[in-house]
Amino acid sequence: MTAADRPLTVFLIATEESGDQLGGALMGALRQRCGGNVRFAGIGGRYMAAAGAPSLFPVEQLAIMGFAAIPRLLPLIMRRIRDATSAVIAARPDVLVIIDSPSFTHRVARRVRKAAPSIPIVDYVSPQVWAWRSGRARVMRTFIDHVLAILPFEPAVHEGLGGPPCTYVGHPLAERIGDLRANDAEARRREADPPLLLVLPGSRRSEIGRLLDPFAAALGLVARQLGRHELVLPTLPHLVDEIGERTATWPTRPRIVSDPAEKFSALRQARAALAASGTVTLELALAAVPTVAAYRVAPWEAAIARRVVKIPSAILANLVLGENVVPEFLQENCVPRALADALLPLIADTPQRRRQLDAFARLDALMQIGSGSPSARAADIVLRVAREPQV
Fold first, then answer.
1. CA-closest candidate to residue 269, choices 352, 183, 357, 190
2. How many beta carbons lie within 10 A of that of residue 338, not counting itself?
3. pLDDT of res. 68
4. Does 8-170+371-387 match 177-367 in CATH topology?
5. What kind and span of H or E run contains 329?
6. For burial by CB atoms within 10 Å, which of 36, 64, 114, 144 has the most?
7. Rg of the chain (C-alpha set)
8. CATH architecture for residues 8-170+371-387
9. Which of 207, 186, 365, 378 is nearest to 277 (CA)?
10. Domain boundaries, the chain
11. Three-class SS state of 270
12. For the domain 177-367, what is the CATH code?
């Protein structure tokens, strides 16, 4: 068998579900690019396993819920870092792809680079060096050969900070854009009465615990002025009963949905949304749903964040657009009256609503929506890095 005939070997590491989804999609794109002449190994979840890379160990072991759990899990985490490093070195892949979760994946990458410097390493999803600890970008250059960015401004950030070569491949939401865009009937429902409002208090119990009460009070104030309306609250299946109990006494009881198809259906018909800060705010923007965003953390976490986080907004859509069009209410500013006063104008045809919609209309061009699959772009770069001679 010649070198050209030998299957390409790709080792992937993803420890969270979002990274596992990216890994599975990337594996599919690589298999297409290679005509099936590719082998996979790695650490991941169900998506990567289904695509052909059973996990070396269950990644659920690495799920950490809060800082308090870290000391208890630290011995296991360190052992798994050693296990992952040994597996990569033993496999001698043509390329190692680490996906997000830098607290784990970067530790593995540094050890691999030291022990086997000829293995090229691609980092899929840039750490948020643009928000905090910007010095990480320059350090990454010593053990990362290429960064695949999912936000369009990240390549320029890495270049300015002296980071590794970085290419914007597209956000994974681009591959689900059909789920976000209303058809004619859904667009008519969006403009019809009673208005449908989305409530998105987060997916973690800690987020829900801090946001659900101010969201409830804000929506009560909105209901007094708005009159009849519908509420839909998407959540995860294991949270349905808990949220159902906590929303049972709301003036307008929300319809709670846990099926992704139901969530996207509601999103395509919603007039406006009240949401926790996170990726969902970018989903809403791409779906052209005017939004008010909010977030709360423990006071000591907020104190640390104010010292180390250096960004003009916590909202992804605002960062991509380069302007703060989505109003955000963080910490002590996350109070019912402020949330209600910001949400009400978004439900009618007002300058506030039109400003958001006009800004959201620019996202397709900024994010290169429709110009190719992010997974396919990522696969092309992974193949190029794998085939480049290593110094």
1. 190
2. 16
3. 44
4. yes
5. strand 328-330
6. 144
7. 22
8. 3-Layer(aba) Sandwich (3.40)
9. 207
10. 8-170+371-387, 177-367
11. coil
12. 3.40.50.2000
